[in-house]
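Q: Entry one of two.
A:
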Amino acid sequence: MAQEKKSEFTVSYSSPSNEPFAITNSIPAPSTSSVQDKTTYLSALREAVTSAQDQINKELTDRMEQDKSRATDGNPAAAKGVDEALEEENYGEEVQGED
C-alpha cells in the first residue's frame, strides 16, 4: 500500500503585544500529473486557503479587541468617540489624512 503524499502550508503570526498563532493545513498531493488530479488538488488548496483566511480573520479580530481593551483600561475617555467600523477597516494600517 503506497503512502499518500501530502502538501502542507503554514501561516504564522507574531506580535510584540499579542500571543502568536500558527495555522497549518495539509492537502493530499496529486497522485499523478493528470489534469484531473491537479484540478482536485487545486480545489482542495483553494478550500484550505479560504478556511485559513477565516481563521486568520477571527484571530486578528480577537487581537484587535485585546488591543482596544488594553488601550481603554484605566482610561474611559479613550473609549468615547471611537468609530468602530473605521477602526476595524484601518486596523494595522497607516491612516492618511489624519491631523
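Q: Entry two of two.
A:
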Amino acid sequence: MVQTKNGYETSYEDRKQNRLQVVYRRQTQERQIFMQDLKEIRRQREIRLFKTMKNLIGPTWLQALSVLQRKALDTLEFSIYQDLLEGRPTRTASLMKELGLYPRPNTVELMTCVYLGRNDPKEMLAQLFLTTYGHPIEGKRCYYNLNARLVLSGILYLGLENLLELLRLRFLPDKEKKPPKPKPRPQPQPQLESPYLQEMTAVLYLRPKRKPFRPAPLPNLDDLNDPYEEEPPIAKPPPPPPPRPPPKKRLPRSYCDKIAGVMNIEPYSTITTTHTIKTVTQGNQLRKTKGSKMSIALKKSYGISVSRSSRGDKRRKRLTAPNTGISSTQYTINGVSKVHGKKVFVLGNVSTLPPEGDLINGGFRLINGEYINIHCGFRGRPPPQKPGICDCVTNWQDAVFKYVKENKCRCGHLYDYGNEGIFPPEEIPYFQKPSRFSPFQFNYHTIYNLDEKQLFVEKKFKKIWDTDSTLHIGDSAVIEKKDKKKKKFRRSSATCLGQNPKPEDYLKCALRQMRRLNIAAKLPDIHLVPELKEWMRWRIYGPFTKSVKKDMLIKSFMFWQIYCGLEKKGLGHVYPKQDPKYKGLTTWKNKQDLNDKFRKYTLKYKLDLYRTYAYSTNILWPTMFQAEFPNKKFREIFFSYLFSRIEDLQLMHPYNSREAAERANILSKKRYICKPDGAEEKD
C-alpha cells in the first residue's frame, strides 16, 4: 500500500506521529522566541541598572580615593614648602607617584606648578591640570582620563571641608525672637474650714517621649534665585589635517622639450661634418658624464676651471600662457619656439569675443591660405539676480519708524500706517469650533450683527477677560487662546532654583557664589558630588528612617550581585595582548633583547590592569553608600582588595571572581592526575 503524507492511505499511527511532530515543533519555536525575548529583557535590565550605578558616581571626573592617596594629599602643602626651599620638586614628585599619576609630569612643569601654587595646594593641582590639558578646571569635558580624574578629585578632597563649612554658614537658619512667656502669678487660696477639704493632686509618671527630629527652616534664599546658564562641554580639538598628496610624477625635461619642439641648431664649424646636424637639448647637457676626482684634481692643479657654466645652474622657468587681462579674448597656440635663448609661444590667431556672451568656438579652417574661426554662437548668461527685499522691518529704530509713518513703504511689504484707508478689522468669529467639551456652534449674534466695530470690541474684551490680562500679573500672564494647551511657563527655565528645587539645585545656586573663596567650587558639576548632596539632603529633610536604611542595604546587595554577574561576562577582565615578537625560535643571543621587550610589555599590561581596576573601583564605591554612612576602616578594607595605585598592583587579582574561578579550575585539573605505571615512588 502506498503511504502518503496526508490522505486516506496513511495509517492512524502515522497521522498521530505527524501531529505530534507539528505540535512539538510549534512549542519548541514558541519557547525559543520566549527565551530570546527573556534574554533581551534581561540584557536591557542589566544595561539600565549599570547606567544607574554609573549615575551614582556623580560628576564624570570624580574618582574614589583610597586612604593612602588621601594621606599623600594631606602632606602636599608641607611638601610644596620644602620643595620651594630646596629648589627642586623631589617630595612633590613622590606624592604624584603616591597619588597614582601615570605618565607623571616632568621636573620643569612640576616645579612651575609648585611655584604658582605655593599659597594653596589646590591651586598647585589646578595649575598642573592647566599645564597638562591646556584649559582650566572650569571647562567641562565629555571624557576624562584617569590622570585628570585623580587631579580633580584631589582638588575636591582638599577643599571639601571648607565647602561644607561655607554651606553651613550660608544655610544657617534665621534667628527668631520668641516673645517671653508671662510668668504665672500664684493666686491666694481661700482658707478652708478643715484641712481634710484640701484638694490633692496624684502625680502619674510617664516615660519621656523622644520628639522626632525636625530640621531647622531654610533662610531667605532670594539672592540664589538669579538666572543660571550651564556652559556647554568643551569640544574636542579638530583632527590634524590630512597629509599632502604625493607630488605628481614629473616627466623628464628632454621629453617635454621634444614635444614642444625645442631644439638648438649649432652653426657650421670644422668639427661638425656637413652631412650631420647634432641636436642638443637641455636634458642631454644635464646627463653628461662627470669627470673623475683625479682628473678634477689635476685640472685644479693646472689652474683649469672645472665649475659649471652659469647657464646650466639656472632653473628652468615654467611657461605661462599669454594673458592681456581681457576676459573676452581667446588665443590659438600653434607651438613653442626659442628666440634669442628665450622660449615663447607661437600664436596662430587672436579673437575678441563680443561682450554679451562667451563665444562657442567650433574650431578653424584653412581657406585660401587664411585661417578662419568657426563661430557656433554665444553662451547665454544667467539673468541678473533680483535685489533682495529691504530690511526695513528688522531695523525698527526711531528714525526709520518716523520715516515709514510719514512716507508710504515702496518695498513690497505694503504696510499702511493711516495714510490711506482705515485700519483693517481682525477676523470676526462667526462660528465656534467644536472641542471635546462642546459641539460645533453658530454664533447667531455675530451673524446678524452688521456693526463691525461692536463685534471687534466684544471679541477684544472677551480675549482679555479669558486670559486675565486686565490684572497685569507679570509678563507671562498674557497668554493667547492657542497657547493655553502648551506647557505652562516654568520658573526654573529662567531662574536657578525653580518651583520645586531639589538638593542639587540648592547646591548649584549656592556653590557658584563660593568660587572666589574656594577653588574646588569651580569644578564642573560639583553640585552632583555625593557628599555635598547628602549634606544638603540632611539639612532639608533630616536623617534617614529605618525603612530607608533597609532599602539602601537591599540596593547595595543588589548592585553587588549585578556587578558580579557582569564580571563573569568579562567586565573588568583584561586579556593579555598577543605579541608576535615572542613567537618562534630564539637562542641565548636574544636573551637580553627579549628581557627588555618583555619588561616593557609587562609594564604596559600592568598599566591596562591598573586603569581597568580603577574604573571598576569607581563604579563599585558609590554602591556602598559611604557618602551617607562614612567609615574610614571600611575604606581601608575596600581599597586593600581593589587597588588604587599602580605600585600596589598584582598580576593575579585576588578579588576578581572570574580569575578566581579560572585558577580554581586549573588547580582542580592538576590535582587529580593518574600517574603512569612505574612512576610511583617506591617505599
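A: Comment on entry two: Strands lie at 264-265, 279-280, 329-339, 342-352, 358-367, 370-379, 431-432, 441-442. Residues 271-286, 298-310, 472-493 have pLDDT under 50 and may be disordered.
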